[in-house]
From TrEMBL:
Domain PII-uridylyltransferase/Glutamine-synthetase adenylyltransferase: 314-451, 873-948
Protein name: Bifunctional glutamine synthetase adenylyltransferase/adenylyl-removing enzyme
Keywords: ATP-binding, Ligase, Magnesium, Multifunctional enzyme, Nucleotide-binding, Nucleotidyltransferase, Transferase
EC identifiers of the protein: 2.7.7.89, 2.7.7.42
InterPro entries, per the entry: GlnE, GlnE_rpt_dom, NT_sf, PII_UdlTrfase/GS_AdlTrfase
Length: 982
């Protein structure tokens, strides 16, 4: 057989010729030489390449040349295995077992054959990395489970069947950890296992009764022996049980309750790290799923867990010390920039964010990296580099292990070994391979440092000299020294700052902190003080941030977040100093601190389509029956995006009109998803309601917004004025097993929506909902059919209800019903009206509002004398204010839209005023004056809201705007003559 491998170094030719000679001799000895042609041209061409790389494959073929024919059956050397094929092949190999010795022998021979097939396909580059690791993991799964199932039956026959106290048969659950759990086994991996069983109990049917734990310990011991023991046929897998609770000193098998209790009370950070990849690889899959659900809260915390970084950093430092001590710098797994560092990067984000972002709750590192890019945790370019580096490092690892089926990640030091690895990976020589390897490792090390490095070592983010503040915080300075330091640092009222710090130290929450939490607080506070001094108003920044620190004292992971991310701490201080409302919101809902991690995103709220898609994607990751998590996701979404809007408003990157737009878009996105969730829940319970024609409804329901949300003018903390309308048959029953009348279905649907919006959870309520604008107000039905709503609007509604309808629009639900509502609104608002009677009703309602809601300035009159600093101006209710403008717009729409239907196109005041100007109904100068006044008033109201102040200003402000609005009011709505019929 000619050797024609262009990259094959001369150093490797003698070894290859030796292997080929042994292969030919083995064929002759087995009487197979005449049949060699049956193996095919492809086999003959690939054989030298494989033998040049793998002494292990050469030895297996020498010992059993028949293996070549076995592997060529169904072309398994040259195609990937189909799903389930690995297990089917093993079941065939194990058919008719008679003893544990025979089980061990057949498992080992099956493993040898599969190792040859997998190495062959890997070295000939027929199999990508994902196929190689998946095949190895599938082989492990099959060997563990088939061996367990056979041993379980045999052990039951001799010792009896294990049962729970209630008599339910028990099976063991085998958790595969690490690379096995993630389907990432390498060519010579150990397998890390944990054994568990569901419930305590005893065996039944044996010579004597054993506890379930004793039974499963015996099964577990037999399973380890079947896989791990070295025989003349080698081994199947090296089994490592040290990841179980208490390690080697712990019991071999634990009940579910014992495992849960251990992890919740004693579980350590490295065990959380290990449990990320845990997977049920053998035994009772259904019970295993229950076990993993029990352990999930230990692995994935519901809050942002930046403490995980510190744990990973400690673990990494321990590994680095081991690398230095054992000289492992040339280890492609543990050395700097190695495989372990890529895994650390992915798992750091999983531990920190995985409790809230279920997309990160997955095992394979390459999938995790793609999720990090898709969800903006890491730049796409960084993920591409890490992915390429990881694949190269894993290919290198496989080449190292394929040589001799030996568990190693160390680069060879001998020239022949180096030449072989370079050849196997397609490089002309060792120097070319080493150059590429060093580049990839440098890339990994750089990204790793950005994620795991100590913040004090981050040169790109210089930190304040916080160590200077440690003595003050720890109390080693006397009061005079402390006041001097605070004053010198820029605190105007040093005594007040000193008192506030003392109050924090003395608070019950701080005193109750456990040791780890207190250490985190002591590490954080000097950083906070140092950075507070950088603010324009250090006193205000400190005053507003300290309540947050006290609030999160018992959840010190938030302190780690701010310690690990100096940029986030700086943004927190800036925002809190600028707005007590923001400070209060973050204190009440510290989960939104996550938003401070990305300043670019913080000051750039997404567009409406992005908002809706982001929320939809987040909810898709949550099981349909997990209402609690759905409600928490909705609340976080709102808190996070409202914070981004407020930050943008304060930062000057978002003007008033856009602020209201964004706040309204946030509400719309939430209402759309709440309606879908509520509808899905109701249909799952009761089936679909019917229409009048007997067909079944597909979400024939709309949520109509009035007032600020209808007029696209939401502010911070605004309620939602809503009306619910359906188009089903109220008398027909739904088609589910628990059928109810359509009227009840839609009423319960409305109640469900309100419940999801109003309910107070740990993250507060979504919105306060006001339903008083529905037909007949509080005494009316919660949900109306479109027909009954139309009848009410045409026959019973008051003028003020038609005024409210001017700012009404459908926010969520059926598009066809939305069109029907819009047509009805146009019909009702566009009806011919007596303008004098309309003016009397509008001005009468406005006067009542002024009398009941305005300030004393209104009662004093509307002359310039009333506009003084001593008399406050209510921006909304006083004469010349917001409501005057709104009432004028509403009057104009009701009076003139019968002739000018274009006035009905929009629901917001600014664009309706534009239409009034375009129609020639109000002069351009007057429209401009009203619009500018309206925007100025609302901007002032927004600023006051962010300062947690009522919507009132000194009476000597906005003189020109107020006079202009009052003048136009008097022109458009002069005090009418009394109604002679009254």
């Amino acid at each position: 057989m000619a050797i024609s491998l262009p990259l094959l170094p001369d150093l490797l030719r003698p070894s290859l010729e030796h292997h080929l000679a042994q292969w030919r001799a083995a064929l002759e000895a087995a009487g197979l030489a005449e049949r060699a042609d049956e193996l095919g041209t492809e086999f003959e061409q690939q054989l030298p390449q494989v033998l040049a790389g793998s002494d292990y494959v050469a030895e297996q073929l020498r010992r059993d040349p028949q293996l070549a024919w076995q592997l060529q059956e169904e072309q398994r050397l040259h195609r990937p295995l189909q799903e389930g094929e690995m297990r089917r092949l093993l079941q065939q190999a194990l058919a008719g077992l008679a003893s544990e010795e025979e089980l061990a022998q057949r498992l080992r021979r099956f493993r040898q054959a599969q190792q040859v097939r997998i190495i062959w396909r890997d070295l000939t580059r027929q199999a990508p990395l994902a196929e190689t690791t998946r095949d190895l993991s599938d082989m492990a799964d099959a060997c563990i489970d088939e061996a367990y199932q056979w041993l379980y039956v045999q052990t039951c026959a001799s010792l009896g069947e294990p049962r729970s106290a209630a008599g339910k048969p028990q099976h063991m659950v085998v958790l595969g950890m690490g690379k096995l759990g993630a389907f990432e086994l390498n060519l010579s991996s150990d397998i890390d296992l944990i054994f568990a069983y569901p419930e305590p109990g005893e065996t039944q049917g044996g010579r004597r009764s054993l506890s379930n734990q004793e039974f499963f310990i015996r099964v577990g011991q037999k399973l380890i022996k079947a896989l791990d023991a070295h025989t003349v046929d080698g081994f199947v897998f090296r089994v490592d049980m040290r990841l179980r609770p208490y390690g080697d000193s712990g019991a071999l098998v634990f009940s579910f309750d014992a495992l849960e209790q251990y992890y919740q009370s004693q579980g350590r950070d490295w065990e959380r790290y290990a449990m990320i990849k845990a997977r049920v690889v053998a035994g009772d899959q259904a019970a295993g799923a229950e076990l993993q659900a029990m352990l999930k809260p230990f692995v994935y915390r519901r809050y942002l867990d930046f403490a995980a970084i510190d744990a990973l950093r400690s673990l990494k430092q321990m590994i680095q010390r081991e690398v230095q001590r054992k000289g492992l710098q040339d280890n492609v797994k543990l050395g700097s920039g190695g495989i372990r560092e890529v895994e650390f990067i992915g798992q750091a984000f999983q531990l920190i964010h995985g409790g809230r972002d279920r997309a990160l709750q997955q095992r394979p590192i390459l999938s995790v990296l793609q999720t990090l890019a898709a969800n903006d945790y890491l730049p796409a370019a960084a993920v591409e580099e890490l992915t390429a580096a990881y694949c190269f490092l894993r290919d290198t690892e496989h080449a190292l292990q394929a040589v001799d089926d030996r568990q190693t990640q160390m680069l060879p030091t001998d020239t022949q070994g180096q030449a072989r690895i370079a050849f196997m990976l397609g490089f002309a020589d060792w120097a070319a391979f080493r150059q590429r390897l060093d580049q990839e490792r440098a890339t990994v090390a750089r990204h790793f440092a950005g994620v795991i490095a100590d913040p004090d070592e981050d040169e790109a983010e210089p930190v304040a000299p916080h160590s200077d503040w440690l003595p003050l915080w720890e109390g080693t300075l006397d009061e005079a020294q402390a006041l001097e330091q605070l004053s010198a640092a820029g605190f105007t009222d040093a005594a007040a700052a000193w008192r506030r710090l003392g109050s924090l130290q003395a608070s019950g929450r701080v005193k109750a902190m456990q040791r780890v939490g207190r250490e985190r607080l002591d590490g954080f506070m000097p950083r906070l003080l140092a950075m507070a001094c950088e603010q324009d108003n250090a006193d205000l920044a400190l005053e507003r941030v300290l309540p947050l620190i006290e609030a999160v004292a018992r959840r010190s992971a938030y302190l780690v977040l701010l310690t690990e991310n100096p940029g986030a701490l700086r943004e927190l201080l800036v925002l809190c100093a600028a707005s007590p409302w923001i400070a209060e919101q973050i204190t009440r809902y510290p989960v939104v601190l996550d938003e401070l991690l990305n300043a670019g995103r913080l000051y750039r709220p997404p567009e409406p389509d992005e908002l809706a898609d982001e929320l939809r994607q987040q909810l898709l990751r949550i099981p349909e029956d997990d209402l609690e998590q759905q409600m928490e996701t909705l609340r976080y979404f709102k808190r996070a995006h409202v914070l981004r809007v407020a930050a943008s408003e304060i930062g000057g990157t978002l003007p008033l009109m856009k602020v209201s737009d964004y706040l309204t878009w946030i509400a719309e996105a939430i209402l759309q998803q709440v309606l879908k969730l509520a509808w899905r829940e109701m249909v799952s319970r009761h089936g679909q309601p019917a229409r009048a024609d007997g067909s079944r409804c597909e979400l024939d329901f709309i949520v109509v917004g009035y007032g600020k949300v209808g007029g696209i003018e939401l502010g911070h903390g605004s309620d939602l004025d809503l009306v619910f309308i359906h188009d089903g048959d109220p008398h027909s029953e739904t088609d589910g097993a628990r059928a109810i009348e359509g009227s009840k279905f839609f009423t319960r649907l409305g109640q469900r929506i309100i419940h999801m919006l109003n309910t107070q959870t740990v993250s507060g309520a979504l919105y306060e909902v006001d339903m008083r604008l529905r037909p007949s107000g509080d005494s009316g039905l919660l949900v109306s059919s479109l027909a009954s709503f139309a009848r009410y609007q045409r026959e019973e509604a008051w003028t003020w209800e038609h005024q409210a309808l001017v700012r009404a629009r459908a926010l969520a639900g059926c598009s066809k019903l939305t069109e029907g509502f819009a047509a009805l609104r146009a019909e009702v608002l566009g009806a011919q009206r007596d303008e004098s009677a309309l003016a009397r009703e509008v001005t009468g309602m406005r006067q009542k509002m002024r009398d009941n809601l305005g300030t004393s300035a209104t009662a004093a009159g509307t002359t310039a004398d009333a506009f003084t600093a001593e008399r406050l101006f209510d921006l909304k209710q006083d004469a010349g204010g917001i409501v005057d403008i709104e009432f004028m717009v509403q009057y104009a729409v009701l009076a003139w839209s019968c002739r000018y239907p274009e006035l009905l196109r929009f629901t917001d005041n600014i664009r309706i005023l534009d239409e009034l100007h375009n129609a020639g109904l109000i002069a351009g100068e007057d429209v401009h004056r009203l619009q500018e006044a309206y925007k100025a008033y609302r901007a002032a109201a927004h600023r006051l809201a962010l300062q947690k102040q009522p919507g009132k200003v000194s009476g000597d402000q906005f003189h020109d705007f107020r006079h202009g609005v009052i003048k136009l009011w008097q022109q458009m709505l002069p005090t009418p003559e009394p109604d002679p019929a009254a």
